[in-house]
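*** Query protein ***
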Amino acid sequence: MASPAGLRESLRAQGVALGPWENSVASVRRELFLPEAIEVGDELISRTVTPQRWLEAVYSDVSITTQVNDGRPSGPDEYRLPTSSSSQPSVMMEALALLDVQPTDRVLELGAGTGLNAAWLAHRLGSDRVVSVEVDPALAEQAAKNNAAAGLSPCIVAGDGGHGWPEGAPYQRIIATYAVDEIPFAWVEQAPQGRIVSPWGGSFFPYSFAVLDVHEGRAEGRFTGYPAFMRSRTRRPKRGYLDDFLHHLQDARHSPTGLSPLMIAQDADALFYIGLALPDAWHLPVTADDDSGEMTLWILADDQLSWASADYTPDTDEYSVAQYGPRQLWDEAEAAHDAWEALGRPTRARAGISVTEHGQSLWIDAPERDLSTLLPSRGAP
């Protein structure tokens, strides 16, 4: 059933805990928040051409891309970077559950996008209790129009979410809908006794929710979930085709390693801790399409100056590594993996985050165990 009620039933069938958001999901029409042309995965769907398929996609539990390349016209061969979307409803529910919104709370949302998340908040709490900040003025204007079409009027403003929105402070809850590598202290200041939920992580592993509670000028919390959100537009690293990051292949330095690339690529906890040491490089596993079981793990610096590859072949205990650039990215990743093993291969659940006016710190088990002293720093193999 392609309707808000149908979406609610679909989420229920998946075991998603809707809690106090059930009525909002079943009442707010997602179709009012989406453009005529949408993208689901690699499929471009037009409401004009295939209206039923469009409606089915709208009320499915999928993420829908609504903007690429910041809204600029794109050439046929240009890399298409998704820059705004309507997030997967089940993931939105996960974030809202972590936020633990109470009926009298005032909420600041960072990243309005289509305006749907702000609409759910406004439907439950009342429009006067919701402020949403969107960095793209055109998207902010459209999100406000979308909410108006749904009979809602949260305060949606254009601005840099990294600064929060002090004009409406204080808030009891702050939620970001884009991934950050650092929690701004402005958020802490604007929710002095509240809770902050944000997708978090650097380039290597941006797949965590950070959930922090604020007391006396200090926010402290842990990591959970595996969300995939777009990065902050104001701190977004370069992205493109693999060929945009690979160069000087003939000048690569070759060496063997005893660390299987699978030990990194297939272990989320390893990826998380390695990501703390390599926040400015990203990884890409590419599996051979010939059923050989072979795989290449690429590690690529955000600045496009350095790259590394490690080739996995089954039934061997030595693997081929190639590296190029001023950084030895595989050596950095392997050193971070060794440090993680020396810590006893801790799970991500043991890691924590603190934010004060002096900045962000990461720790394991307790704030006194600063991870910056336990993991290798950038460039230290």
